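Retro notes (design track)

What went well: tokenization of the new backbones is finally stable.
What didn't: we kept losing track of which sequence belonged to which structure.
Fix going forward: every design gets posted as structure first, then sequence, in one message. First example under the new rule, 143 residues:
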């Protein structure tokens, strides 16, 4: 007499029509894992350029914001220096120490102090993001 086993024996049933590969023999199962991996690879390859464009756009937007902020700070520093009798161009340059001289242009025309900051990056991409800030001094401050 046979004793009942404590272990179950798994049986493999033939594949359903939905699980069979086209053209495969009846009962053959498609490897779901390999087709999922292939699908994921295709999706990653398709999305990689989109992710690269989004990261580039974000970097350009942050660079444009930084240029605008630096121009505002430098122009206000120049205006304050002019109000107290110091050189506004030197003060504007001192207020933006991290900007190269070729990216920072400070100009004074009478009561106007204009600061222009070129955005960082390839000129073809960032030319539109250059920032310019002008501060007009009150009439009691001479040219």
């Amino acid at each position: 007499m046979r004793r009942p086993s404590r272990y179950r024996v798994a049986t493999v049933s033939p594949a359903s029509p939905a699980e069979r590969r086209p053209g495969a023999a009846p009962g053959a199962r498609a490897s779901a894992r390999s087709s999922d991996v292939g699908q994921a690879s295709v999706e990653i390859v398709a999305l990689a350029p989109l992710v690269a464009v989004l990261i580039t756009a974000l970097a350009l937007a942050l660079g444009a914001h930084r240029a605008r902020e630096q121009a505002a700070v430098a122009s206000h520093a120049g205006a304050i220096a002019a109000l107290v009798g110091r050189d506004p161009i030197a003060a504007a340059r001192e207020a933006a120490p991290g900007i190269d001289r070729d990216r920072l242009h400070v100009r004074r025309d009478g009561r106007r102090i204009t600061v222009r900051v070129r955005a960082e990056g390839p000129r073809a991409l960032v030319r539109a993001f250059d920032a310019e800030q002008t501060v007009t001094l009150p009439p009691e401050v001479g040219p």
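Added context from the reviewer: The beta strands are 104-109, 112-117, 131-136.
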